[in-house]
User: Which sequence fits this backbone?
């Protein structure tokens, strides 16, 4: 005889994440996981007066007498399982009729709970509106509206809510509903509102967790030394691309601390190159761990952001790399996108608190992130992309992104400053304009960057040194300031004095690319060739497959005159399956320096046979003809290059070649009239025949060559301030051309005077 029992109950449906895949991969392990689930869940369910109805595959169907019991039991399950790396559940809950018949269980309550479960995050809980109504007034249970869903097999759409679990596998917020104002008896200050934007809510958990121990509250004590930390990229779960760069905001905010040493974005990029992942778009926990190991950093900050309607929720965990456990967990929420900068401020504050920085120090030093950057997140997105391009030495892309940021927020001082910096490294004349714009809005930048802007705003570069020294005094580990001083000294012909500053840079960051480059130049200029070789070999140990450093290695051996080693490396390159550089070019360069013209010509000619290397071959054969002093051959290769640039519509390259040709004709072959004709052609291009080609578009090398050609052709009117201003450290070049003019006029005494001033500055 069939029996039927019908009753109203809160139904819980669970499911093991990744079980199907595990079953296909390792059936024995999957079955063991089911046994583990039974052993862990049944005692918890019994403690909350729940009834284990049945197992459905890897899922479990459970009933409770009330929604509160169902939810609190589910929260306890997820809390306990947060320490189990193998067993992660999704849970769905609904109140409805449950029908027991002939040993089976079914009904709408069961169906809806089973449809809600897949909507939950791993380690999370989803409930129906009916459950939400029963628990919404319980302060210990936190919910947020997720969306209205039309569930399979259910006629009407159902409002779905998330219950946030503090210890789920994906950190989730804990407070959703605005609470009544709570005050301290002593201060009468609203606890939740203090220091936060309107609508901002926060819950913080200080904890240590491990699979074996569970939760142990253990404070982190400040030891007196700066604590190094790294910031992983935000995990953006909102679908809103304007929120992709929030980690940059957090880094900027945390850099205000005198107790933390925050891994900079540029340093992180260098480390990504070292671990062979320069093209990574997102630094997640896995890659963050690799970066921390490489940089000897023990604390990794992990963040994520999610959106529930107008509610934004930011989660943060601080990971102890050495112990492989979480030290701290924080959740902050805000209503409305405009309050997201306030979320970043609070996350920054809580991070500093977690590492035992004193509250009074935080209060004294922390500024609102929006006041130091921009209130417009769209502008910051482009700024963040521009910075990434800068780190990759893609200055044109960087400029494009900074300009987009400024289109959105024309007062964004940091964007102006970085645009100026990119322009400087691209040797463009707009540097001063952008710096003055940054100065105009200098109050809205962090303190450190304010000093850099002040330095860059000083016209005479050597006068910037006291400001860079002030930066070093305030920020002793600021490698960029050491580099800037070294760079100033180097370009002021105080090469020997520049070397210690570049070396100091590399003590802080052995992979600092600009410092490696400039120190290599300085060693070569001072004839410290063995030091130069050692430097590039150290750099190659960091970047073993980096084309630039491999090329510098060959240059170092060549300038040192160590040709046995040079050709030995060249043969290794030729026999290698992976050709970092073209071996024919390397052999040709070596033969050319040794005046072995036959072998040099043979190697360079091979480059002409491959379309990918044809341009390089023509350029190298042009150099070869200059070495030989063969005018006709030089003209032949230069003409072929010009024709290629015309065919490929490379007009700037075309003018670059003309500038180089004007210089070579007058200096190498004493063809002043022919050089003058080339200059007239260039002048006609600058005067508007090709409007998209300007003097500033030429490479620095070509601009200097062209100005030299102007000078030696007596065209002093062409060497005006605007052209000199577009050349970095133009005061040096001004003296250079003044000395040259005196020389050409026969005033050798004045020429010597100006030349000496150049070297003594």
Assistant:
């Amino acid at each position: 005889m069939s029996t039927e029992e019908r009753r109203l109950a809160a139904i819980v449906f669970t499911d093991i994440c990744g079980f199907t895949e595990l079953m296909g991969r390792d059936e024995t392990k999957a079955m063991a996981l089911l046994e583990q689930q039974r052993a862990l869940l049944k005692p918890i369910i019994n403690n909350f007066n729940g009834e284990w109805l049945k197992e459905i595959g890897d899922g479990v169907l459970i009933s409770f007498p009330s929604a509160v019991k169902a939810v609190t039991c589910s929260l306890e399950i997820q809390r306990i399982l947060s320490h189990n790396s193998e067993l992660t559940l999704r849970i769905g809950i609904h109140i409805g009729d449950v029908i027991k018949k002939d040993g089976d269980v079914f009904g709408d309550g069961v169906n809806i709970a089973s449809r809600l479960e897949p909507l939950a995050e791993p380690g999370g809980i989803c409930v129906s509106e009916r459950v939400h109504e029963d628990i919404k007034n319980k302060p210990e249970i936190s919910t947020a509206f997720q969306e209205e869903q039309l569930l399979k097999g259910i006629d009407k759409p159902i409002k779905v809510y998330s219950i946030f679990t503090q210890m789920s596998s994906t950190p989730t917020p804990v407070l959703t509903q605005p609470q009544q104002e709570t005050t301290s008896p002593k201060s009468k200050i609203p606890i939740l509102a203090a220091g936060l934007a309107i609508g901002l809510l926060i819950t913080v958990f200080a904890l240590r967790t491990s699979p074996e121990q569970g939760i142990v509250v253990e404070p982190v004590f400040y030891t007196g030394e700066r604590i190094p930390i790294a910031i992983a990229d935000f995990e953006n779960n909102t679908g809103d691309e304007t929120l992709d760069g929030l980690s940059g905001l957090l880094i900027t905010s945390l850099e205000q601390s005198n107790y933390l040493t925050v891994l900079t974005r540029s340093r992180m990029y260098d480390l990504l190159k070292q671990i062979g992942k320069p093209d990574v778009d997102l630094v997640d926990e896995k890659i963050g761990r690799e970066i921390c190991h490489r940089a000897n950093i023990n604390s990794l900050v992990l963040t994520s952001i999610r959106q529930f309607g107008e509610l934004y929720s930011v989660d943060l965990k601080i990971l102890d790399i050495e112990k492989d456990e979480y030290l701290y967990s924080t959740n902050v929420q805000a209503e409305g996108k405009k309050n997201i900068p306030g979320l970043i401020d609070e996350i920054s504050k809580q991070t500093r608190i977690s590492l035992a920085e004193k509250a009074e120090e935080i209060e004294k030093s922390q500024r609102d992130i929006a006041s130091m950057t921009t209130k417009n997140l769209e502008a910051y997105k482009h700024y963040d992309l521009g910075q990434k391009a800068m780190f990759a030495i893609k200055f044109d892309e960087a400029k494009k992104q900074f300009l987009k940021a400024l289109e959105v927020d024309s007062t964004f001082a940091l964007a102006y400053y970085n645009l100026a910096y990119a322009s400087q490294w691209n040797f463009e004349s707009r540097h001063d304009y952008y710096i003055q714009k940054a100065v105009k809005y200098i109050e809205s930048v962090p303190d450190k960057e304010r000093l850099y802007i002040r330095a860059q705003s000083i016209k005479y570069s050597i006068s910037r040194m006291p400001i860079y020294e002030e930066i070093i005094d305030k920020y002793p580990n600021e490698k960029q300031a050491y580099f800037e001083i070294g760079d100033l000294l180097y370009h002021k012909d105080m090469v020997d004095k520049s070397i210690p500053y570049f070396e100091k840079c590399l003590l802080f960051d052995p992979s600092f690319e600009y410092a490696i480059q400039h120190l290599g130049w300085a060693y070569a200029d001072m004839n410290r060739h063995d030091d130069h070789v050692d430097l590039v070999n150290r750099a190659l140990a960091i970047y073993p497959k980096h084309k630039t450093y491999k090329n510098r290695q060959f240059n170092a051996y060549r300038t040192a005159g160590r040709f046995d080693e040079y050709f030995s490396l060249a043969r290794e390159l030729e026999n290698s399956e992976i050709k970092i550089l073209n071996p024919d070019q390397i052999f040709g360069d070596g033969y050319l320096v040794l005046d072995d013209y036959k072998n040099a010509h043979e190697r360079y000619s091979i480059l002409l046979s491959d379309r990918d290397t044809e341009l390089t071959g023509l350029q190298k054969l042009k150099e070869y003809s200059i070495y030989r002093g063969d005018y006709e051959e030089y003209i032949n290769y230069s003409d072929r290059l010009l024709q290629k640039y015309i065919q490929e519509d490379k007009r700037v390259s075309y003018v670059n070649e003309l500038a180089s040709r004007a210089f070579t004709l007058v200096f190498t072959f004493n063809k002043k009239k022919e050089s003058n004709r080339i200059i007239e052609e260039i002048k006609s291009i600058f005067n508007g025949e090709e409007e998209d080609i300007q003097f500033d578009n030429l490479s620095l090398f070509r601009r200097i060559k062209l100005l030299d050609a102007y000078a030696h052709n007596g065209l002093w009117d062409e060497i005006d301030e605007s052209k000199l201003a577009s050349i970095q450290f133009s005061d040096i070049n001004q003296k250079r051309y003044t000395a040259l003019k005196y020389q050409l006029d026969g005033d050798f005494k004045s020429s010597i005077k100006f030349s000496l001033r150049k070297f003594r500055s």
Observations:
- Residues 105 and 305 are 39 Å apart (CA to CA).
- Residues 166-224, 757-761 have pLDDT under 50 and may be disordered.
